Amino acid sequence: MATVELLRDDEGPAVTGPGVVRAGWGGSLLGVVHADPDAAPTTGDRVRLCFWPDGRVTVEAVEPRRTVLIRADADGSARRQTLAANVDVVAVVEGLLPEPDRNRIARLLALARASGAEPVVVLTKADLEPEAARIATELEADCGCPVLPVSSSLGHGLEPVRALFAGGHTVALLGPSGAGKSSLVNALTGATVMRVNALRRDGKGRHTTVTRELHPVAGGHVIDGPGLRSVGINSAAGLDDTFADITRLAAACRFADCGHAVEPGCAVIAAIGTGELLPSRLDSFRRLVAEGFRQELRRDARLRHDEVRRRRVLHKSLRRAGQAPPERGYW
Ligand SMILES: Nc1nc2c(ncn2[C@@H]2O[C@H](COP(=O)(O)OP(=O)(O)OP(=O)(O)O)[C@@H](O)[C@H]2O)c(=O)[nH]1
Ligand SMILES: [Zn+2]
């Protein structure tokens, strides 16, 4: 058996080591994956191979993962997809033109944080936005992590991005199609590693990257994800840091499990009243929490049971106070 790194999983596993090896799934792995689909080998996994006397190669086991990036389908189903494993840094990539989508950044950052990897935001196409530096500084406060403006075309701002790979780190790029992920990889490596599509008039690229592969970059590796048009989040985990302002305010809510919707003594709602917090920010937070929570409920019967009880108690106390219960499905 040999332990190797999985390079791509789209046409069957291929691995690093002495050249590329094509391998099928072994019997023991099939059993494990049947019981837990998340255990299927993915990009960045280290796997144990068996070389058979007849020349076949099979993946028999996946080594324990340090981090794992999982995406839930945004259609609200319980389907999940393991995007990559053993990633050290998740870079959320968003273009400065058209204007960066803050909701999408928050959503992808939550996914990044839930993976266990270090989050960072890369704002591309800085050459098209004269206010790039100011926007980055502003976003940094919102995101609670470094925000790096870069221009892949001019080669500006690349050093801090290159530094993410130091020590042989693996960096995963997460962002919508057209955000400039492939151009960034090419700028970092100084070579055409990824195919880049022509820019459309509206500043969006077309969907070009279809596989997730590990490419050597600056002493580490990059995984350029497929254009994630709609990334669902898996759980409410990972949101606290992205919405550090709300988390800080929520510490003063009367109830520890406050939903910041209709609860009495809610410090978050109070902050909207005083103008300290924008309603749109709370809205985006609550949508993401609700989405992640729905995914968790789908997976966990015990949690479902507790949630039904929690709502019953809340509704009762609201009725007693003469207030209407909140609309269904939003919180
Ligand atoms: N002006 C400018 N254009 C850029 C920059 N980076 C990327 N672009 C353009 O934006 C478009 C999309 O870039 P890609 O690198 O293909 O985007 P992507 O995120 O890899 O897209 P997918 O492969 O579909 O996921 C291309 O036309 C690039 O030339 C930049 O720094 N400045
Ligand atoms: Zn509250």
Automatic annotation (TrEMBL):
Annotated CP-type G domain residues: 75-231
Q: Does the keyword Cytoplasm apply?
A: yes
First-tier enzyme category under EC: hydrolase
Question: Which residues hold Zn(2+)?
Answer: 253, 258, 260, 266
The record, for CDD domains, names: YjeQ_EngC
State the compartments where it is located: Cytoplasm
Q: Which UniProt keywords apply?
A: Cytoplasm, GTP-binding, Hydrolase, Metal-binding, Nucleotide-binding, Ribosome biogenesis, RNA-binding, rRNA-binding, Zinc
The protein's name in its UniProt record = Small ribosomal subunit biogenesis GTPase RsgA
